[in-house]
Amino acid sequence: MRVVDADGEMKGVMSVADGIALAEEAGLDLVEVSPNAKPPVCKVLDYGKYKYELQKKAAEARKNQKTVDVKEVKIRPGIEKHDYEVKMRNARRFLEKGDKVKVTMRFRGREMAHQDIGYDLLDRMKEELSDISKVDMQPKKEGRQIMMVLSAEAPEK
Q1: What is the reported pLDDT for 89?
Q2: What DSSP element (H or E) covers 26?
Q3: CA distance linking residue 75 with residue 84, whole number of Å
């Protein structure tokens, strides 16, 4: 195995027993940091401190990660103009925050005979939000409702 001492200085390739002896001489532990390398890399360091550092790094990574929520917007095929605009404004706000938007269109009674109106409305919604979103799930019929999922488009760099 390849051994690196506490100062970061390369000690070279040696046997496990020699590595352990080197670590005990320094009053520290011999830790395998890269097991998949050829030969494996071990480092002489304080294991407790090493574990603590890894834990802090993991906590920092968790703190900086953004969770993506799925927000739902429910509409009906006979939605009025103003109600549609309110739903669109909400959907746009959710997408700008980075959340996914699940659009659910519910049919009641004889509305089931006019599903084409529902598909047209979802297509219109998809078109109006196309500047900030992409379609994760195309409009799909499930029972008495049609669902579509939109997600925020990644900002271009």
Answers
A1: 95
A2: helix 16-26
A3: 8
* Alpha helices for 27-142 (secondary structure H): 47-64, 81-96, 115-128
The answer to whether residue 67 scores a pLDDT higher than 80 is no
List the end-to-end C-alpha distance of the chain, in Å, as a whole number: 43
Would strands 100-106 and 70-75 be described as parallel, antiparallel, or unpaired? parallel
Residue 154 has pLDDT above 80, yes or no: no
Rounded CA-CA distance 147/14 in Å is 62
42, 55, 39, 36: which is closest to 6 by C-alpha?
A: 42
User: Do you find a cis peptide bond into 155, omega within 30 degrees of 0?
Assistant: no
| Of residues 128 and 67, more confidently modeled | 128
Greater model confidence, 105 or 68: 105
Rounded to whole angstroms, the Cα distance separating 32 from 104 reads 52
